[in-house]
């Protein structure tokens, strides 16, 4: 188990390798990100960049699914799981919550109660 390296050094190295890219992005790019978002060229490119990213993700999913299909002892079950997973994720996490209808308003007093002055209503109710 001991490879001649202190375990704490390995743990620290792995921690830095895991978190350093995110920390560098946050503190290195975020100060300029607000100004960058206002560039007209970026705003025009954004829909295309999003579409390209989605296309790459879909392509990777299909590629992995076909590799699993070829390597699995149960290929039909693998395809069924791969086909069902996006729907399950949508139902579990992304489905919009149902809109609650507004609460009914309290009933309005009848016309005869509204027509009397406030003092008469108080004595009538007492």
Looking at this protein, list some descriptive labels.
126 residues, 5 helices, 76% helix
Strand content: under 5%
What's the SSE pattern? Answer: HHHHH
Largest beta sheet, briefly? none
**How many distinct helices?**
5
Low-pLDDT parts are none
Approximate shape:
extended
The count of β-strands is: 0
Approximate helicity band: over 70%
Integer average pLDDT: 79
Rg calc: 31 Å
Alpha-beta content class: mainly alpha
Termini Cα gap:
88 Å
Report on the architecture of this protein.
By secondary structure, the chain is mostly helical. Among the domains are: 7-38, no CATH class; 40-94. The chain contains five helices and no strands. It has helices spanning 7-37, 40-71, 75-94, 111-115, 118-125. α2 (40-71) packs antiparallel against α3. The N and C termini lie far apart (88 Å). The model has no long low-confidence stretch (mean pLDDT 79).
